[in-house]
């Protein structure tokens, strides 16, 4: 076991206009202006994390493009790989990947984000050829009615190491019920992956409400579970208003789920939620939970970068004390 210095980037993502992928501002220089702004924000957070000698930065679910601007998703992943390699830091978050229906015009191969510098000290050019190409494509090939009504989208978490290599991916299986109208659940086996700090796994937001899902990772020897999340303080509305309830119910629910999953899997649990204005429904609450220590980092409600050191040596003691993992292994053998 070793030490991990983790940066929790509780960002306040700019949300793209509702509806299927399309040119956000016709005839503008940027076909995906909200994604551009979110990427620039990500670079700022990464630079601050690097300045504080963090080794990993975790971002929220939907921290770049939500469920609407999905066609250039492979270019987003490439951009983040280049950012991780340039800044020499590992990155974790989730991206929504989308595909066009069979027979539709293929999307451009050029990246509409390559013009964005990987350092905030540099300024992007006014307009790049790739931006113009994507703008022309989105104007000439809008989505069909069927594509708009039934998009094929996958919400996939990634872990990129400090060399820019994708060493872990996981597609969200347990969808919050409104997501089921848009997102296709993952079907592949949930796998851990090796990092320099130990074995790691990933879950996404509503996944944390499913204990068996976390147990799958524990059964594979996970030491760390990263959980990109986008959970509003209003997600239980309007039903919750039928009952007298704790004003902090939603916040306390998420905090309890994180600590419960941490203890029962005997892992370091790292959850990053979106932050922002509470009047817009944001509740933040990102943090790190560790057996025998509890919650060791907290981000409040608004946008914030929190850097914390984690000694994974505590897992050895907690596993010897509680023997949750040992008992689970015995059940698997019987």
CATH architecture: 4-Layer Sandwich
- Rg from Cα: 20 Å
CATH class type = Alpha Beta
Count of distinct structural domains: 1
Per CATH, the superfamily is Carbon-nitrogen hydrolase
Order of helices and strands: EHEHEHHEEEEHEHEEEEHH
Strand content: 15-25%
- Biggest sheet details: 6 strands, mixed
Instruction: Tell me, briefly, the overall form.
Output: globular
Structural class: alpha/beta
Amino- and carboxy-terminal Cα gap:
29 Å
User: Residue ranges: pLDDT <50 for 5 or more in a row?
Assistant: none
Describe this structure in words.
Keywords: Hydrolase. Pfam families: CN_hydrolase. It comes from Kwoniella bestiolae CBS 10118. GO terms for molecular function: hydrolase activity, acting on carbon-nitrogen (but not peptide) bonds, in linear amides. Residues 4-323 form the CN hydrolase domain. The chain is α/β, with parallel strands linked by helices and 334 residues long. The chain has one domain (3-333): Nitrilase/N-carbamoyl-D-aminoacid amidohydrolase (4-Layer Sandwich), CATH 3.60.110.10. 29% of the residues lie in helices and 21% in strands. The chain is built from eight helices and twelve strands. It has helices at residues 33-51, 73-87, 129-140, 145-149, 211-219, 249-265, 314-322, 324-333, and strands at 3-10, 56-58, 90-99, 152-160, 166-171, 193-195, 198-202, 224-228, 268-272, 287-290, 294-298, 304-311. The protein has a six-stranded mixed sheet with strand order 5-4-3-2-1-12. The longest helix has 19 residues, at 33-51. It is globular, with a radius of gyration of 20 Å. It starts with a strand and ends with a helix.
């Amino acid at each position: 076991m070793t030490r991990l210095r983790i940066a929790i980037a509780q960002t306040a993502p700019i949300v793209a206009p509702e509806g299927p992928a399309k040119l956000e501002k016709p005839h503008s220089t940027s076909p995906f202006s909200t994604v551009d702004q979110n990427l620039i924000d990500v670079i700022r957070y990464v630079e601050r994390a690097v300045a504080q000698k963090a080794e990993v930065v975790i971002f929220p679910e939907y921290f770049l493009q939500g469920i609407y601007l999905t066609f250039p998703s492979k270019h987003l992943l490439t951009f983040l790989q280049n950012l991780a390699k340039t800044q020499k830091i590992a990155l974790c978050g989730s991206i929504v990947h989308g595909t066009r229906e069979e027979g539709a015009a293929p999307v451009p191969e050029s990246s509409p984000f390559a013009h964005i510098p990987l350092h905030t000290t540099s300024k992007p050019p006014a307009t790049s050829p790739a931006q113009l190409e994507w703008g022309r494509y989105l104007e000439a090939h809008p989505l069909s009615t069927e594509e708009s009504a039934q998009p094929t989208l996958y919400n996939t978490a990634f872990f990129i190491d400090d060399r820019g290599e994708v060493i872990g991916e996981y597609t969200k299986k347990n969808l919050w019920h409104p997501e089921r109208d848009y997102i296709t659940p993952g079907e592949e086996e949930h796998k851990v992956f090796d990092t320099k700090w130990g074995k790691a796994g990933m879950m996404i937001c509503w996944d944390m409400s499913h204990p068996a899902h976390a147990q799958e990772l524990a059964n594979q020897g996970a030491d760390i579970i990263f959980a990109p999340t986008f959970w509003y303080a209003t997600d239980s509305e309007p039903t919750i208003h039928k009952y007298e309830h704790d004003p902090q119910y939603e916040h306390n629910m998420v905090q309890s789920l994180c600590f419960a999953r941490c203890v029962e899997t005997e892992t370091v649990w790292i959850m990053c939620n979106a932050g922002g204005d509470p009047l817009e429904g944001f509740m933040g609450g990102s943090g790190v939970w560790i057996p025998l220590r509890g919650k060791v980092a907290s981000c409040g409600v608004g946008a914030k970068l929190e850097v914390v050191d984690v000694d994974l040596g505590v897992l050895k003691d907690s596993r010897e004390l509680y023997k949750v993992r040992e008992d689970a292994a015995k059940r698997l053998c019987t």
